[in-house]
């Protein structure tokens, strides 16, 4: 775009932006780009002018892409940011898609007037974005049902099914940095409240682009929405709490909401299931869009659980349960005297493997002879071993719960990035509330038998083999470096990785074993290890997932063999991204 094009785009944006804050932000940038700041030195003025022009070009020359993850980005002015204009355009585009979808059907559920459930978390502007969505949906005759307050993401996925809604919208950026927000879309009817996948994402995106091209958001009609009744929330709590029953003797548990919206729902669900209220990390229990006690509001990040560890040491806790800010993910930590913190956070693969075992055993005890366990292709193969042992079906899926939740006959699904689905009959998305309850039930039952989660991990290794996993990431400033690495690996496939011979390579770029095409390479090694290489879908990163396995010898021997292989794979991964 030329400077003149950018100026015209900025003027068009300002003319329709209903938000005084982002209007002022863009106006200031335009002034600085024109060199209109008389309060700074000449050199500083030139520097600011250049920076302002670069910022304007980045904000205005493209749009924030809408895809299977919906929208996600920094809150700021311009079409390449999250703001009221972009959200209003997204709402209008989704509304047009739903009306077209309804009109294309002559009978059945889709013939009725469409309906949308809308939820939001505690991030900046989440409530505003949700209200804009509800009003715009209602303005074109869609029944818009807005949650009465900030609530966890899984409740939207639940409500789409509970209310037989056509779609759901959750305003959240999950565990992204504080400056971000996002827009997640679910579909009802035959999609059962799962997140959108192709081709629906492209269809919705086309409608959004049409709105952005042809209309000012100030021209969009707005209408009256309704508030979801408390009975919807109560139904989620009742169904989730019915998964388990609390034992007479209970564990001492510490809980953190990571400055998010999980506490109210988690506490109510625990109470309904008969569990005692946990010790809370008080500084993190209430929603706070600034996330003041963590550098990055993701329980996977170093330091994110430091306050939880301190609280647990003081309480002498048996277990730490942490939700991310929108409570769709779960982190767990257990006592570990060898660590300075006194506790160790389990990996997503460890939690997923134990919950998968719990789910398979539960299904067997309930007399279920069919069903499937599923996990994403970058998650540990451990779940496949559980499925084989219990003679259950198993499915690999592409990354993301939009795929995991769609596995046929699903009993349990997970992805290594702390996402777990223990109750697919209730929710078709990762759910940190129900997963936290299930893990607490597992830990409590083990305690009654005089065992710990650490003991259970050892028992897993003895029954199914010891699985060890690791991940190496390369963050880049030039995104082309990632595509160059992937192209080079395809052009000249490696014959060994970390000194271990490569026996075969699966290139998923054209689809593989029923999976949709994905930019992923899967390497199988001579010792049974596996390496997955893929670009991140949300960050400028190349990710390398490493998995090893040993099912022979004593527990110590299995652990030693797997860890030795893992160290070799890590060296190979670090060499690749050096």
UniProtKB/TrEMBL annotation:
All copies of domain Alpha-D-phosphohexomutase alpha/beta/alpha, residue ranges: 64-210, 245-333, 348-457
Coiled-coil region list: none
E.C. numbers: 5.4.2.8
Top-level taxonomic group: Bacteria
InterPro entries documented for this protein: A-D-PHexomutase_a/b/a-I, A-D-PHexomutase_a/b/a-I/II/III, A-D-PHexomutase_a/b/a-II, A-D-PHexomutase_a/b/a-III, A-D-PHexomutase_C, A-D-PHexomutase_C_sf, A-D-PHexomutase_CS, Alpha-D-phosphohexomutase_SF
Domain (Alpha-D-phosphohexomutase C-terminal) ranges: 517-549
Record key words, sorted: Isomerase, Magnesium, Metal-binding, Phosphoprotein
Essential cofactor(s): Mg(2+)
GO terms (BP aspect): carbohydrate metabolic process; purine ribonucleoside salvage
Molecular-function GO term, any one: magnesium ion binding
KW Cell membrane (keyword) present: no
Keyword Isomerase carried by entry: yes
Family (UniProt): Belongs to the phosphohexose mutase family.
Protein name: Phosphomannomutase
């Amino acid at each position: 775009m030329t400077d003149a094009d950018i100026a015209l785009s900025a003027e068009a944006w300002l003319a329709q932006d209903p938000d005084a804050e982002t209007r002022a932000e863009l106006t200031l940038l335009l002034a600085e780009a024109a060199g209109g700041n008389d309060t700074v030195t000449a050199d500083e003025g030139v520097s600011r002018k250049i920076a302002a022009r670069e910022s304007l070009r980045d904000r205005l020359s493209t749009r924030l892409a809408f895809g299977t993850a919906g929208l996600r980005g920094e809150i700021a002015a311009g079409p390449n940011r999250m703001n009221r204009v972009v959200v209003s355009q997204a709402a209008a585009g989704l509304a047009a898609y739903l009306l077209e979808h309804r009109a294309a059907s002559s009978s059945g559920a889709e013939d009725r007037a469409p309906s949308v459930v809308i939820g939001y978390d505690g991030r900046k502007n989440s409530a505003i974005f949700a209200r804009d969505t509800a009003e715009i949906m209602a303005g074109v005759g869609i029944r818009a049902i807005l949650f009465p307050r900030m609530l966890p993401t899984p409740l939207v996925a639940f409500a789409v099914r509970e209310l037989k809604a056509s779609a759901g919208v959750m305003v959240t950026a999950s565990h992204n940095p504080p400056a971000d927000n996002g827009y997640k879309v679910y579909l009802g009817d035959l999609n059962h409240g799962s997140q959108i996948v192709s081709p629906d994402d492209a269809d919705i995106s086309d409608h959004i682009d049409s709105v952005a091209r042809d209309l000012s958001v100030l021209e969009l009609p707005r209408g009256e929405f309704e508030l979801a009744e408390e009975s919807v929330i109560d139904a989620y709590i009742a169904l989730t709490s019915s998964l388990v029953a609390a034992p007479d003797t209970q564990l001492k548990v510490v809980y953190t909401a990571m400055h998010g919206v999980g506490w109210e729902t988690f506490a109510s669900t625990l109470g309904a299931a008969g569990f005692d209220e946990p010790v809370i990390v008080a500084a993190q229990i209430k929603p706070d869009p600034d996330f003041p006690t963590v550098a990055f509001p993701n329980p996977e990040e170093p330091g994110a659980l430091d306050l939880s560890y301190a609280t647990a040491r003081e309480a002498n806790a048996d277990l730490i349960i942490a939700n991310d800010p929108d409570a769709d993910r779960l982190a767990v930590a257990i006592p570990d005297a060898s660590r300075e913190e006194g506790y160790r956070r389990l990996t997503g693969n460890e939690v997923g493997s134990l919950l998968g075992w719990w789910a398979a055993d539960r299904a067997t005890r309930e007399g279920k002879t069919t069903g499937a366990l599923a996990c994403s292709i970058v998650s540990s193969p451990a779940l496949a071993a559980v499925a084989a042992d219990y003679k259950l079906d198993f499915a690999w899926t592409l990354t993301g719960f939009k795929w995991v939740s769609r596995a046929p006959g699903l009993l349990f699904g997970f992805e290594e990035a702390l996402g777990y689905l223990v109750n697919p009959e209730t929710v078709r998305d990762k759910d940190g509330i129900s997963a936290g309850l299930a893990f607490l039930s597992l830990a409590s039952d083990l305690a009654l038998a005089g065992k710990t989660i650490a003991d259970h991990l050892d028992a897993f290794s003895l029954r199914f083999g010891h699985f060890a996993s690791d991940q190496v990431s390369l963050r880049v400033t030039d995104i082309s470096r990632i595509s160059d690495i992937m192209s080079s690996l395809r052009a000249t496939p490696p014959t060994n990785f970390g000194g271990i011979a490569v026996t075969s390579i699966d290139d998923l770029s054209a689809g593989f074993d029923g999976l949709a095409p994905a930019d992923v390479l899967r390497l199988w090694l001579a010792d049974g290890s596996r390496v997955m290489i893929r670009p991140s879908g949300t960050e400028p990163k190349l990710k390398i997932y490493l998995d090893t396995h040993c099912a022979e010898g004593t527990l110590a021997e299995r652990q030693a063999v797997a860890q030795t292989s893992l160290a070799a794979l890590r060296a190979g991964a670090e060499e690749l991204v050096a």
